[in-house]
Write a structure and sequence with these properties.
Blueprint (H helix, E strand, L loop, with lengths): L1 H47 L3 E14 L4 E15 L5 E9 L11 E7 L5 E2 L6 E3 L2 H16 L9
Parallel strand pairs: 3-5
Antiparallel strand pairs: 1-2, 1-4, 2-3, 4-5, 4-6
Length: about 160
Amino acid sequence: MKNTTLALLLFSCFSCSIVATTNMAAEKVISATNMTDIELNGFKEAIKHVHYLAKVKLTNVEIFSEDNETDKHIFSANVIETYRGTVQKQISYEMFVEKGEEAIVEKTPVYIALCKDNHGTYYWPGTGSQFSLSEAIHVWLTENEKVVHEMPTTGNWCN
């Protein structure tokens, strides 16, 4: 009887463990799916409001002090693919940030959404303008490349 009770108890604990592990894995998948949706939706929103969209490999950043509160970061990048705007092999763009803010040159390619001023200078319009590579964005761009290239922009983020 003791062996049967022990066996049932062990089997019960094993079953609980499988259910708990399965539930935890399902929650992670749901969270990953939600994160992918959020990122893709943010990407789609960004491209409506900018002049230039590309996949780039950042190569350098230079930092200049503008005043007591602001630094100007000038990023340089090799362009892997242009989705909107003038096709080019290299690009540089400006980013104005709080004094002392860190300038990170990503080691892996990223998508950038940029504005272009009246003098032809590209600039970073703000948070939500740089995106990590993701399968969801890649697939969406592949399926919608012509639409993205020809889509008019509101330029709202570029004022």
